[in-house]
Amino acid sequence: MIESICALLIFATGVLGIARLQSVAVQQTSTAAFRTTAAMLAKNLVATMWLSDRTPGVLAANFADTPPGSGYTAWLSTVTASSLPGVAAMPPKVELVPIPGGGTTPVASVQATVTIWWKTPGETAIHKYVETAQIK
């Protein structure tokens, strides 16, 4: 009788462990999906910058978040409509830093840093994805 109770206790502990493992796996999958969405959104903005006029002044006018340019505003609506939770409360930030060109034929470039924040439901931590690119 004691052996069967011990066996049931060991079996129940194993089943509870597997249930917890499944719960953590589902949570990690959703976290990975949110991170992937943030990465795709940030890379989309950088790609749009690459396809536009890449001079520092034009990039700043179109894609800066302060004051918001037309490219940033259009991208922001895509970010807000995405599946990222809490992104509307924490708008993404786009920093554009001009880098002077050097050498015999200097071409100025811009270091673009795109930061997207989101908050997963049920968590207190705020997640962040940062994409940095030099656009020349």
Explain how this protein is built.
This protein is an alpha+beta fold and 136 residues long. Helices cover 51% and strands 19% of the residues. The chain contains three helices and three strands; from the N terminus they run αααβββ. Strands 1-2-3 form a three-stranded antiparallel beta sheet, covered by helices on one side. A hairpin with an 8-residue loop joins strand 2 (109-118) and strand 3 (127-135). The longest helix is centred in the N-terminal third of the chain and has 50 residues, at 2-51. The radius of gyration is 23 Å and the shape is elongated. The model has no long low-confidence stretch (mean pLDDT 90).
SSE inventory with pairings:
Blueprint: H1 2-51, H2 56-63, H3 70-81, E1 93-99, E2 109-118, E3 127-135
Antiparallel strand pairs: 1-2, 2-3
Q: Return the average pLDDT rounded to an integer.
A: 90
Sketch the topology as an H/E string, one letter per element. HHHEEE
Percent strand = 15-25%
Number of helical elements:
3
Strand order across the largest sheet: 1-2-3
Helix content: 40-55%
Overall radius of gyration: 23 Å
Structural class: alpha+beta
First-residue to last-residue Cα separation: 77 Å
Largest sheet: 3 strands, antiparallel
> Which stretches are poorly predicted, pLDDT < 50 over at least 5 residues?
none
The overall strand count is 3
Shape: elongated
